[in-house]
Design a protein that fits this description.
Layout lengths: L1 H9 L1 H17 L4 H9 L6 H20 L9 H17 L6 H10 L3 H8 L6 H18 L2 H29 L10
């Protein structure tokens, strides 16, 4: 909860990837309140009232996953909506003066997108969601120790990370009113 809140304020991309990882972790714990408490809540050095709040927060996510029919796989609509918002910003940056540097960064990734779509096996998603799915897949490969697969997409990830990083930074600036998309930065 505290990590998610901090990431949401600091970096929208890290927030989304954190929630995706949490979704998978909750699935691995089979949505069991006891397992969630023992693995995610009990180890925290906080008082019992705070532990109860944390458990309720995790169980809210479990309930959302169940409500959205994503017990086995998939991502919460909340994160997909944020990615859609980021994609809208991406589209604006491709045409507006504030996006000059972003366009240069994205242009290095552009030729890799067809290969990336094939690797991720998702044809019907936006370029922004594709980038997130590639980053998440690479993260999972590393966690699982699948160095062969991680190495396969390493070069592409080196192109994806700067795009997502810059887009996330601009998203935060736009959200805080620090950037006018229609004027030079």
């Amino acid at each position: 909860m505290d990590i998610a809140q901090a990431k949401r304020k600091e970096n929208i991309a890290e927030y989304i990837l954190y929630l995706w990882q949490l979704e998978d972790l909750l699935r691995a714990l089979q949505f069991s309140p006891e397992a969630i408490y023992s693995q995610l809540v009990a180890p925290r050095q906080i008082d019992e009232e705070q532990k109860h709040i944390y458990l309720l927060w995790y169980m809210d996510i479990v309930n959302l996953l169940r409500k959205e029919g994503k017990e086995e796989s998939g991502h919460l609509e909340h994160t997909l909506h944020l990615i859609a918002d980021m994609h809208n910003l991406h589209l604006q940056l491709l045409h507006n003066p504030a996006g000059e540097h972003y366009r240069q960064t994205f242009s290095r990734l552009l030729p890799q997108l067809p290969q990336l779509r094939t690797m991720v096996k998702k044809e019907d998603i936006s370029d922004t969601e594709l980038a997130f799915r590639a980053l998440y897949a690479a993260m999972l490969y590393r966690i699982k120790g699948d160095e062969k697969r991680a190495a396969t997409i390493n070069d592409t990830i080196e192109l994806v990370s700067p795009v997502v990083g810059e887009l996330a930074a601009l998203y935060g600036k736009v959200e805080r009113g620090e950037v006018d998309l229609f004027k030079d930065m």
